[in-house]
Design goal:
Protein name: Toxin-antitoxin system YwqK family antitoxin
Oligomer: single chain
Number of strands: 31
Radius of gyration: 36 Å
Strand content: over 45%
Structural class: mainly beta
Organism: Shewanella schlegeliana
Helix content: under 10%
Length: 346
C-alpha cells in the first residue's frame, strides 16, 4: 500500500479499517469502533501494565479502538484481537497522517512509519520490527531523500550507513566479529570518486578503489592480512596501468618489495625498484618503452654498491658510463655519441 499523505486518503483508510472491524467481530456480529477510554486493562504478569490485554464489557476486546486527543487535533485508530493490538494502526495530527504501524499479538511486527506531517507529508523514519524487536531503521529528510540506515541483531547495532544527497557515504558493519567501516566519496556531479574499506579499531585500510571523473579506475589497493602487506595499482585516465607498488606495515605502511612503473604507450615495464621496509635494497632498473634496458644499479641497505653504471639508448647503443666511489657518488662520467664514439668526459 502506498504512503498516505492526503486527508481524503487517510479518511478512506479509516473507513476501510472500520469496515474491517465491523466484519472482524466474533461470530460475525456487527461491532462498531470502540473508544480507547472505554477499554479496561486486566491484571497480568507482563513487565509493564500497558502490555496487558484490553477488555471491553468483561471480554477480551477484538475490533478497532479509536482515540481523540488535544481537542480532537490528534486521532488514532488501532486494530485489536483478543485484547492485544493486532493488525494495522494509524494516527493523524491536524488532519495530516502522523504515524502508521503493524502489530501482531500486541507487539510491533512489520513497518512502523512516522511522517513529516507538518511539511511534505513524506516519511520521516521507517522502522522494521519482528515480534516487537527492531531489526532495521531508515531516516529521511523532508523531501524523502534517505539520510541513514541501521540494522540490528537483538540489541546490537550490526550495520550503519550514512548517506550524502541520497548516496551511500559512510558504512559501519561487522565481519567475523570485527567492526569495519566503508567510505564512499563523490565528485560534484555525483560520479563515484573513491570506495574504501577500513578496520574500525586502528583505521587500517583493507582495500580501496578510486576513479576519474569519466568513471575509469584510477587506483586499486588491497591489503593482505596473512603477509601484513599491501599492493597499490594506479591507472591512467585512458585505462592503462601506470604503476604497481608493494607495501609492508611496521606499523605504518611503507614501500616494501618490488615497485614497478609502466610506459603509457604500450604497458611495457618502465622502471623496477626493490625496497626492504622503506630502504632501497636490490636491483633498480630503468627501461625504454621498447623493452631495451636503459640502466641498472644495485642497492644494499640504501647504498649503491656498483662501481660503474652504464646507460643505453633505446637502440641498445651505449650513451654514457658513470664511475662511482664506495659511497655511491658519481666521480667520473664518460659520454658517447650516436655512432658509439667517445664524445666527452668530466
Amino acid at each position: 500500500m502506498p504512503f498516505i499523505t492526503k486527508t481524503k486518503r487517510y479518511t478512506y483508510l479509516m473507513v476501510l479499517m472500520i469496515s474491517v472491524g465491523l466484519l472482524s467481530a466474533c461470530g460475525g456480529d456487527i461491532q462498531l469502533p470502540i473508544s480507547e477510554d472505554d477499554l479496561e486493562q486486566i491484571t497480568c504478569d507482563a513487565q509493564y501494565q500497558s502490555d496487558c490485554p484490553e477488555t471491553y464489557r468483561g471480554e477480551l476486546f477484538t475490533g478497532i479502538a479509536t482515540n481523540y486527543a488535544y481537542g480532537k487535533a490528534f486521532y488514532r485508530a488501532t486494530q485489536y484481537q483478543d485484547g492485544l493490538e493486532h493488525g494495522y494502526s494509524f494516527s493523524t495530527l491536524n488532519n495530516q497522517l502522523n504515524e502508521t504501524a503493524w502489530y501482531k499479538a500486541g507487539k510491533l511486527d512489520g513497518k512502523q512509519i512516522s511522517y513529516h506531517f507538518s511539511t511534505t507529508g513524506k516519511p520521516q523514519w521507517v522502522r522494521l520490527y519482528q515480534a516487537g524487536v527492531k531489526i532495521e531503521h531508515w531516516l529521511y529528510d523532508e523531501q524523502g531523500v534517505i539520510l541513514s540506515y541501521k540494522r540490528f541483531e537483538g540489541d546490537k547495532e550490526v550495520e550503519s550507513i550514512s548517506y550524502e544527497k541520497g548516496r551511500e557515504w559512510r558504512l559501519y558493519y561487522f565481519v567475523d566479529g570485527e567492526k569495519r567501516q566503508r567510505h564512499k566519496d563523490y565528485y560534484a556531479d555525483g560520479q563515484l570518486e573513491s570506495n574504501s574499506e577500513f578496520i574500525y579499531a586502528d583505521y587500517k585500510k583493507l582495500n580501496e578503489k578510486t576513479y576519474y571523473r569519466n568513471g575509469r579506475l584510477r587506483s586499486k589497493f588491497n591489503y593482505d592480512r596473512a603477509s601484513n602487506s599491501g599492493m597499490l595499482e594506479t591507472y591512467g585516465s585512458d585505462g592503462k596501468r601506470r604503476s604497481e607498488q608493494h607495501y609492508g606495515y611496521n606499523p605504518l605502511n611503507t614501500r616494501h618489495g618490488v615497485q614497478l612503473t609502466f610506459c603509457g604507450e604500450n604497458g611495457q615495464v618502465e622502471s623496477s625498484e626493490h625496497y626492504n621496509m622503506g630502504v632501497a635494497d636490490g636491483e633498480f632498473k630503468n627501461y625504454h618503452c621498447n623493452g631495451q634496458l636503459e640502466n641498472s644499479r644495485t642497492y644494499v641497505n640504501g647504498l649503491v654498491i656498483d662501481k660503474e653504471i652504464k646507460t643505453y639508448r633505446d637502440n641498445g647503443q651505449l650513451m654514457l658510463v658513470e664511475k662511482l666511489d664506495s659511497k655511491g657518488k658519481v666521480t667520473h662520467t664518460t659520454y658517447y655519441d650516436e655512432s658509439g664514439k667517445l664524445d666527452s668526459q668530466w
